[in-house]
Amino acid sequence: MASYTWSDAPRQTAFPIAAAGYPFIAAAAFVTAVFALLGMSIPALLGMGATACICLFFRDPDRVIPNEDGAVVSPADGKVIVVEKVTDPRFYDGPCMKISIFMSVLNVHVNRVPFGGNVTSVDYHPGKFLVASADKASDDNERNAITVETEAGKRYCVVQIAGLIARRIISRLQTGDAVRRGQRFGLICFGSRLDLYLPPDFSPAVNVGDRVRSGSSVIGTL
Questions:
Q1: Residues 168, 169, 172, 173: what is their CA dihedral angle, to the nearest 10 degrees?
Q2: Is 192 an active-site residue?
Q3: Tens digit of pLDDT for each residue in 5-18?
Q4: Using one digit for the tens of pLDDT, what is the confidence trace for 43-92?
Q5: Any idea which of 83-97, 168-182, 187-201 has the lowest mean pLDDT?
């Protein structure tokens, strides 16, 4: 029987919300209340709908993490749009396996650690806000690259990339942090993409077009 664990303690609430969403939800609820107090029923109803949508966007469900030896879990919810071997010295020394996951505004946007280890670098790069699914998004868009070294001495890099609507990348990780597989580490507000650069001997278990869930979907093996 497959074994699973919690990487983070389960939330004691029926509908967990990421803390980064509280200001957006509070602002939408406040504007909705103003419209309601002024007797503006249609704007108030629209405000209620917008508030509900923001709550859904910032949902942060608990996930059980598979305990398979060597399993690499998806860092994001969304659709796999790239699975290929590349050479990109910005994120990995030498040839590597690249997997890209596109998150629409309908997906959960909380990001999770693909594999345990220690953070060796965090490199933020300002940039443009092209559509995240576009090929040039990896090169031109605002991004945050996190490199992790595993206990076995292997390295991988996970890159948070802002999208057309996204205007804020959030990451709690710093150089020197120890991380666990499936641990929450950040999010990207309102539509985005994650690129994962893995050792060349990485064996992918996903194909372009597959749908994955952060923390619980195994995307391959180290």
A1: -150
A2: yes
A3: 887 877 777 789 99
A4: 999 999 999 998 988 999 999 999 888 999 999 999 999 999 999 999 99
A5: 187-201
- Please give the Cα distance from 166 to 190 (Å, whole number): 5
- Residue of 84, 79, 141, 150 lying closest to 113 (CA atoms): 150
Residue 134: CB partners within 8 Å, gap ≥ 6? none
The active-site residue out of 100, 192, 214, 217 is 192
Per-residue pLDDT for 133 more than 60?
no
Cα dist from 124 to 1, 18, 84, 114, 169, whole Å: 41, 22, 24, 19, 9
